[in-house]
Design brief:
The protein is an alpha/beta fold. The relative contact order is 0.21. Helix content is 21%, strand content 34%. The protein has three helices and eleven strands; from the N terminus they run E-H-E-E-H-E-E-E-H-E-E-E-E-E.
């Protein structure tokens, strides 16, 4: 199962569209977004996908939840998500709750912990847990804009850059 990973889109419609076009080309149906979507209007871009969203510190959870419910029944939006996809245990949180993020990584209960917040790409193993931050698609920071795909059956991560 190939899934899309993104975070910190900060209402950057062109960069989100670029990532979604790549996901469509690859036949991806499921996207994990690790927070800081910022605007509920951006959710319309995801209407053709199953979307799992962990609220970020810049998100309004109530506004986004209401907007998401009006767009698709395939949207799941929570503060943190514990998922099982393709037999893999995945935990996703934005990452501004640093203690919770570190506790989930250290727990050893997950195959993957996905987060955002730092706007920095991360791909590392902590014991048996792979920790991934796909990078940021928007916001103010100096660095490359990126997103990723993850092949759960092969445990292969591919990072993509926005031109």
């Amino acid at each position: 199962m190939l899934i899309g990973l993104m975070s910190d889109s900060h209402n950057n419609h062109p960069n989100v569209r670029y990532a979604l076009d790549i996901f469509r080309e690859l036949g991806i149906n499921t996207i994990l977004h690790a927070g800081d979507l910022i605007s509920g209007e951006l959710l319309k871009e995801f209407k053709d996908f199953s979307l799992y969203l962990a609220f970020g510190n810049g998100d309004d959870p109530l506004m986004i939840s209401v907007k998401a419910a009006g767009i698709s029944s395939q949207f799941v939006c929570e503060e943190a998500l514990a998922l099982c996809l393709d037999g893999r245990k995945i935990f996703m949180i934005h990452g501004d709750q640093r203690t919770e993020l570190e506790n989930q990584i250290a727990s050893g209960e997950h195959d993957y912990v996905i987060h955002g917040h730092t706007h920095q790409f991360r791909n590392e193993m902590v014991d048996n847990t792979r920790v991934i931050n796909p990078g940021a698609l928007g916001g103010r920071f100096v660095g490359e804009r990126s997103f990723a795909t993850l092949d759960l059956s092969r445990n292969e991560l591919q990072r993509y850059f926005v031109p």
